[in-house]
Amino acid sequence: MRAVLILNADALPASALESDLKQAGAHVLGATNCEELVQDTIRWKPDVIVAVTANPGAALFAATALLASAHPTAVAVFTDDVRVESMEQALASGIHAWVVRGYEAGRLRSELQLAQLRFVRDHQQQLAIRELAKRLEERKLVDRAKGILMDTGAMAEDEAFRTLRAAAMEGKERVGQVAQRLIDAARNAEAINRAGQLRMLSQRLVKLHLLDLLGVEPQSAAALRALSVDRLGENLAVLEGLVSPATFGDLLDGCRSAWESLAPALGRTAGDAALAQIDAGAEQLLDAAERLTAALESASPVARMQVVNLAGRQRMLAQRYAKLALQQAQAGAGERTALAARRDTAQRDFERALQALEQSPLTAPKARALLLTAAQAWARLRDSALRADEAGGRLALARSSEELLEVFDTLTEDYEHSLQVLVG
């Protein structure tokens, strides 16, 4: 018999129980009560806890249940309580021996040994159950991760599993750990992409409003504006399910609030005041979306997410450049200088990011071909911006800016689904 801790109860004096335990060969560490059971068990580390009580109450069951969750230990209770309800509570609260009207010094040793054996068996069963649950959960994670690889990498199932296993072997990890990281990375990449779309849509809506006012393919501009409104609402709804409310809820609320302020203004089409109100609301949405996207990238455990944000931001910069060119062409002399400076800033940011993407080791051959197309469309957009005071220039600007949007939508999705970004 090993070390024993006495749980003070009402049926037998602690001194008598201690004497009987010593006669049975136990080393008595001391006595405790229900309130201090967990604390004293952690401090003294007994092999078994013994209580003798005629009518155990709720305090005993609460104490042993807390012990079972905090520091599992064998527990033996000798009692006069023959109620089945008490037996059920005893089993549920982690008591391993519930001896009814059976306290006898001569049987104490064997009863405590039985309690220890049951504790060991229960503990092993719980470990086996947890291990099985862990394996089942890992299997679910691996299946989800394989699905991501099959969808984004156009892989067969066997190839997807080999990819996960190779990454696990390289990192000396379990396949389930790699699968979880891949799932988290895919979720984070989608969130960054969708938050980045909010930035772009804020500028696109103003550009389309201007094109409509200027009579540049007004039906197309109106249709695209309606699609942009739907896309913005969809992204906000999806982001609610993608991001942590506790971590990013305030930033997402800021985007939603900015959109709720901007949306009513889009219905106003007349006058410079309406346009100024729309543009101001769009700038608030842009700022809120920038903060959310930057926070999502910064919080990502995968540093490679920067390329998703960088490619996604190009969509916004192209739309912003086109918007500013239209505004500059229609502005008075006093406003043109400020608008030109803002347009130059958008141009520098776009071209700097374009160069960074071209030089990135994460840029695959397909992405390089898209970047070449983007560079050509960008050249056309810059040329048309110089002619934005002409009908032909405005039409070319409308088309080239939409072409750039389409290219960088595709490119951002390619980075979002890239194996190099998600797996490494």
Give a brief outline of the structure.
With 424 residues, this protein is of the alpha/beta class.
Description of the structure:
This protein is of the alpha/beta class and 424 residues long. The protein has 3 domains: 3-125, Response regulator (Rossmann fold), CATH 3.40.50.2300; 128-171, Orthogonal Bundle (Arc Repressor Mutant, subunit A); 175-422. It is built from 15 helices and 5 strands. A 5-stranded parallel β-sheet has the order 2-1-3-4-5, sandwiched between helices. α5 crosses α6 and α8 (218-242) runs antiparallel to α9. The longest helix is centred in the first third of the chain and has 45 residues, at 108-152.
Topology:
Elements: E1 3-7, H1 14-23, E2 27-32, H2 37-44, E3 48-53, H3 58-70, E4 74-79, H4 84-92, E5 97-100, H5 108-152, H6 157-171, H7 175-213, H8 218-242, H9 245-265, H10 271-299, H11 306-330, H12 333-359, H13 365-385, H14 391-416, H15 419-422
Parallel strand pairs: 1-2, 1-3, 3-4, 4-5
Helix pairs in contact: 5-6, 5-7, 6-7, 7-8, 7-10, 7-11, 7-14, 8-9, 9-10, 11-12, 11-14, 13-14
Distance between the termini: 55 Å
What does the radius of gyration come to?
A: 34 Å
Number of domains: 3
What is the 3D shape? Answer: elongated
Strand content: 5-15%
What spatial order of strands do you see in the largest sheet?
Answer: 2-1-3-4-5
